[in-house]
Amino acid sequence: MSIAINQKTCVGCKKCLSVCPGTLIKLNQEGKAFIKYPKDCWGCSSCIKECQAKAIDFYLGADIGGRGSRMQVEMKADQVIWKITETDGTIHVIEINPKASNQY
Amino acid sequence: MKKLQVKQLETDVLIIGGGTAGCYAALTIRENAKAGVIIAEKANIKRSGCLAAGVNAINAYIVKGQTPDDYVDYAAKDADQIVRGDLLLTMSQGLNRVTKKLEDLGLVILKDDNGDYVARGNRNIKINGENIKPILADAVNGLDQVQVLNQVNVIDYIVQDNQILGAFALGVEDECFYIIKAKAVICATGGAAGLYKPNNPGFSRHKMWYPPFNTGAGYAMGIRAGAEMTTFEMRFIALRCKDTIAPTGTIAQGVGAKQVNSKGTVYETKYGITTSERVYGTVKENQEGRGPCYLRTEGITAVQDEELKKAYLNMAPSQTLKWLESGKNPSQQNVEIEGTEPYIVGGHTASGYWVDTKRETTIKGLFAAGDVAGGCPQKYVTGALVEGEIAAKAAVDFIANQAVSDRAWDEAAHTKAKKNQVESILNHENPIFSTAELEEAMQKVMDTYAGGIGNNYQFNEKQLELADEKIDQILTLSEGLSAADMHELLFVYELKERLIICKSVIAHLRARKETRWHSFAENLDYPEKSAAWLKYVNSKQIDGKLTMIYRDLVKRGETFEHRN
User: Fold this and answer.
1) Which chain B residue has the Cα nearest residue A23?
2) Which CATH architecture has domain B239-339?
3) ipTM passes above 0.90
4) Helices B380-400 and B95-105 sit at what angle, rounded to 10 degrees?
5) Hey, what CATH topology would domain B5-236+342-407 get?
6) B203 in contact with A at a CB cutoff of 8 Å?
7) What is the pLDDT of residues B97-137, one digit of tens each?
């Protein structure tokens, strides 16, 4: 799995369920989202872009060198704000202007 | 007994797959005709298909000083001539038109002071592609008379007397069996991932280049319905950043990073620079003890570091995450690279339906666009859009020239048989094997005997013979699979689709008795290429048996049209 859904923060809005290209996310009996098929996640990050409650963390599996950092993103009209939190609490923020092209 | 509720729908044009080509086909139909459209999409068109995470650049564009003919020449050279000149030309001629349309819809494209697009090399332009799929989806969702069925997965065509009449589908969320009747059908399902054991077979098995949800349904449905298919032996293997399987082109072209081995030697000049040669060189360097291989990024500037991190967040965020949590920027550590497992994908190589210039398949009224259509490699995003456009216009023309009486079919018998088949899977009890176990078995067979990563992409005739035998065994076992719910049912169909495609891939690899492309189709019994194989290897299922068909090349300036 390359996402982890925080059941306490999830508001059950179902946006992640609807957007997942593998329809891998379902609701549990408490009405909270969970990833039913963790090994089937592509890592496309569509769900974290949808989640306004910031309940979903994106991470790299240990088998591909992941070190436990968690990534989230906030999608605003004029700004995309990526936030990476390392296990020791170090936070990296990268802001991208969606109206600006890649330089490469 | 579990039974499924039936939903019946009818439309003029059914588009199967709401990805790049499918969405653009819908837009084109609405601009050119009043025809009704249904898009059946297995996920949600907002983020489905290849563009879910975004895309790094427009990789197929006719930049200033270049012509569509130049693009045809480039693609033909890269595939060592096994391409359709007519398809490549009609695609190339539309590249700039669809790019403009994408910009009008909201895609950000980098421009210079004169307002011209900034080129990245001879064929690419620079964009911000993070939201490219939501842009397309918004445009489609705003259309009149276009019904988007999200989370509805088509499992088979309805074909009678070699004419398409519609398709059967499964509603995964609403738990329904769909019968969708249509006057014309555009197949835009994408190519096939998951045939071979992947780079990371464990927890991160789906951290792959191509969407793991593209299971090749379009190919499999076509094969089952007796459509002619082409060039399945030209597999595609992507050269990627190790582990994250993120694109390498952005680094290679963006900051001019060369491929180097562990000794620091640039090796690309030794093997050549076609797509397959870049993979092959990396494989050989590893085989001969000079691995791992890298893109040489050490020494790039701090500004370049930051721009690369941003560029990857816009299309493959895993790579940026990897740089950040490793504590080493690309300027401090070269980026390790590896080849992926082989895929079958007509947008990069030439595998797919054998189509005419209108993208009509050999089944009347069935059109193919994007990764599922053969003969036309190097399409990338814009080429898929053009094919969606061509297929859409042709489908509209087809409907206008079609008499209603031509479409009579024995609905009750067709539907009953298919519905029974679906429900029987839901009602099988106590199977020994699960779908996941058979998928693992299939991927192991393909890896070991049909040139997977584990065998350095190489194979010989005996291995292919064994692969075919073993895939047959797994096909037989797949008949006993069961599903407890709709999602598991989808998994069963996806596996069966992949097994059918594996059979075709093996048959095509066996048929082409030469090595024209290293790594993509490297037959150790025939290690050289031969002018005698300047021809297409096609196939068609006749009476349940895959039959090979060999056709002469359609070169630049020539065209191929179906005879009837």
Assistant:
1) B43
2) Alpha-Beta Complex (3.90)
3) yes
4) 100
5) FAD/NAD(P)-binding domain (3.50.50)
6) yes
7) 999 999 999 999 999 999 999 998 899 999 999 999 999 99
